[in-house]
Amino acid sequence: MWERPWIELFPGVRRRRIALTERMYQMEVSLAEGSHVPLHSHPEDQVAYIVHGRLRFQLGDTFIEATAGSSVAIPGGTPAVWTLEETLAIDTFSPPRADYLAVDGDT
User: Fold this and answer.
1) CA dist list (Å): 7 to 36, 103, 107
2) For 32-80, what is each residue's pLDDT tens digit?
């Protein structure tokens, strides 16, 4: 099976697309222990499923710790993420993120 290449998002954080439809974008995210996704904003809704590891999410004023087997629903807005252990997550965005499609070469 052909796999897409890993793309670095931030130091210690990389992604690769695993599925795409007109209304959904899904990717694997590999996060090294101690890495951080800074506070950011995107209008797309997001669901993160933790395959293994442990993350701390900031959603506005709320903090959520997620471990293997758990999901976090993230409405469009301003999330941030801290990696507490080496983690593999599956992130799904709806609608697909145009910025990711552009980097993937699918504009």
Assistant:
1) 16, 9, 16
2) 999 999 988 899 999 999 999 999 999 989 999 999 999 999 988 878 9
Give domain status of residue 64, yes or no: yes
Neighbouring residues of 10: CB distance < 8 A, sequence distance ≥ 6: 35, 36, 37, 38
Give the structural domain span for 66.
Answer: 13-104
Alpha helices in the chain (DSSP H): 98-104
Sign (positive or negative) of CA dihedral 99, 11, 62, 85: positive
Whether pTM > 0.90 for this model: the answer is: yes
